[in-house]
Amino acid sequence: MFITSREKSIIDLIVKTSGKHTVHSLATYLNVSVRTIQRDLKSIEKMLQQFELGVDRTGNEGLFIKGKNEQIYRLIQHLASVDPTDETPEERKLKLLVTLLHEGPSFKKQVLAQQLGVSGATLTSYLDDIADWLSKFSITLTRKRGVGIELVAHEENKRHALASYVLIYFYEDLLESLYLLQQGKKTDHILGYFVPEYFGAIDELLQREAKKAQISLADSDYIGLIVHICLSMQRTEHHFLLELDYPIENDQTAEFQWMAKICRELKESLSIPITENDIYFLTVILRGSKVQTDESVYYDSIVLGKLLKDVINEVSAKLHVNLADDFSLYRGLLAHMAPAIYRLKQQFDLFNPLTEDIKRKYPVLFIVVKQSLERHFKDITFPEDEVAFIVLHFGSALLMREEKVSIKAVVVCPTGIGTSKMLASRIKNEVAEIKTVDIVSIKDFQTEDLEEYDLVISTVRLPFTNIDYILVGPLLDDHDIEIIQQHLQRNVERVTRNKHYLAPDNQPARLPAIRILLQEIKDVYSSMEAILDHFNVFHHSGDDYWHVLEEMVEQAEHGGLLANPAEVIERLKEREHTGGLGIPQTTMALYHCRAEGVHELIFQVAHFEQPCRVKGMDGEVMPVKNLLLMLAPENMSNREQEILSMISTSLIESDRAMMVFSSANETMIRQKLEELFLDYLQNQLIKD
């Protein structure tokens, strides 16, 4: 049995005082945080299962060991013979991994065993695990008699392997270290490797620059970016340089320019020699995780959107459900798939620790989603880890259809959009008392008004000592559900302190729902009216499409539809710089953006007699005769996003649709828009 000295002390105290010690009193007695005690209790509960025992609580939150007395006696006897250690196997494997990657290329086994303080047999076991891990990143670890241990790998793969290991096994430790640094507290090398000064400086700079550039990252991607930047700085500082030459065109992208600015400031402030290759490498990491807020990608990729619609329709047909009109599912998939496809094309696989659990819990859904992805994305191979993430989005959508749920909870979940939504749906579905579940990131949670919530649930241990919360797994198993229900039973009076179960006689119970519906009807009406009222087709004989765009934007300004046309044009240019806007296998290009100066939704078409040359969404330059302009306000409602998404995906939904939108016939295009809007009103708004 592996056990730390603190875990052993906690068990001793609980056994001896049985019901007297609470989590808070243990924290005070052992001079550690409440969060640390909660983390240790999780490990202790797993350990006690070997003895058919468990940790339970009295009505006053006192802790005691639950089980047969003979099993408790067995536990005490066993603990007396165990020597505690304060290093977990994962920590020792991390130390081994760092040694292999920093002090190579070859080692003697006896020397490594002495450095780690383990036996030869234990080292062999660790090396087996590390070799399996490294193989995922195309790294070969060989052991030869008389030669020793050798590691063969490209520097890029070494960085991926070390960063991934740290993020998967020590994510919560990274969160705690980052929180302490943000509080101005000094700390030793993080995980015995990362320099805290570098870590803190990167965090401060990223937060400031990401806010300026309006780049939104999920918690897990944000921490991952910090880890990769810090790792790159330390590796380069020790002369472990990237050997690969990255494509020169990458330095024209907005992501590269932003990352170059970050690295330039770090280089100046910390005097670290960051290379051009480092910037390219980190840009790949950024592009693989950048788009994480699904609200920001509502109509950004027509081709990808069409493929996802096909996947959703096929999964719906095979499962005999209708998810085709679930905009939340479509938007979440679009947000996930854009960076996922980039990762896969860069051969930068993402390890998913939940894959086996997802396959076991949702075997049929997993098979159906995998088959559909393979059928519609023929040029991309989706590994099971990536399929599992996508399955979570569908699982969330299916669970949302079953919900009928009075307590308000908040979920702190940094693992991604799909996981968060599924967890929220599972909580509502399994715990009938909970009516609403909000989802927030750890960064946002620090500034949330907790008085709004009756229950705080988290999938990771939070680095805050003054918050009472429940720790659960991302997939919410039966044990997690039982913990939530027990907590509600023990704290029913406190949890329901703000609840009024009987509404006043003069207040209709469904008033909030009616208000929401009325607002949605208003959003839909004003959006459709704005698009139809101001739709035009412009005809031009030249091929200078930017001149035409400027004319269209200026005309929209004269019509009172927008202000500050220069800002709108600048946004359009930024969007073109990010990626191609020509729609492959058509003569159309969709130029679109969101800007504060735009007052209403705008959709217009410019037709060129002579084709202009525009970069396509597939990266190839293509001839374009029909330029579609779509503009939207910076802040939009869900219904407004749905309408723009509906228009953009309809552009290539069929041969007839492509013919209509590329016809330059204003009457035909307007009629097509009216058909789309009528279908939406009948099948979405009225039905909902």
Verbal overview:
The protein has 688 residues and is an alpha/beta fold. The chain has six domains: 76 residues, Orthogonal Bundle (Arc Repressor Mutant, subunit A), CATH 1.10.10.10; 65 residues, Arc Repressor Mutant, subunit A (Orthogonal Bundle), CATH 1.10.10; 127 residues, no CATH class; 107 residues, PTS-regulatory domain, PRD; 89 residues, Response regulator (Rossmann fold, 3-Layer(aba) Sandwich), CATH 3.40.50; 171 residues, Mannitol-specific EII, Chain A, CATH 3.40.930. The protein is built from 28 helices and 13 strands. The strands form four sheets. Strands 7-6-8-9 form a four-stranded parallel beta sheet. Strands 10-12-13-11 form a four-stranded mixed beta sheet. Helix 10 packs antiparallel against helix 12 and helix 18 packs across helix 19.
